[in-house]
Amino acid sequence: xxxxxxxxxxxxxxxxxxxxxxxxxxxxxxxxxxxxxxxxxxxxxxxxxxxxxxxxxxxxxxxxxxxxxxxxxxxxxxxxxxxxxxxxxxxxxxxxxxxxxxxxxxxxxxxxxxxxxxxxxxxxxxxxxxxxxxxxxxxxx
Length: 141
Prior knowledge:
By secondary structure, this protein is an all-alpha fold. 53% of the residues lie in helices and 0% in strands. α1 (21-33) crosses α2.
């Protein structure tokens, strides 16, 4: 009886895959476009993807309700409104202060929620503490 030959390197293993006929056809077409066998195409695609990174990338981070451009436009329009009110004598009657307080009360809950959601920056190892940031509302005019 002959002794079995020793092979160098690991032999590829056979794995099964479940997919629909339509999905298989898409995979086959993509592999053909790249000049690869279906097996090689699937291995390369599988190794190129990092499921953990994909899960993080798929879940969007909580963002602001307005984009930077929308925030700037809103600020500019409120500032223009404040200028017009001040020019029409509204500042003396307290209209400007009332508008500022109303806008601040609208923004305050969202500001507090964003502050809670934002992790605090790490403290420096040594040195004096910086002075506290000035407190105020988002819409101080």
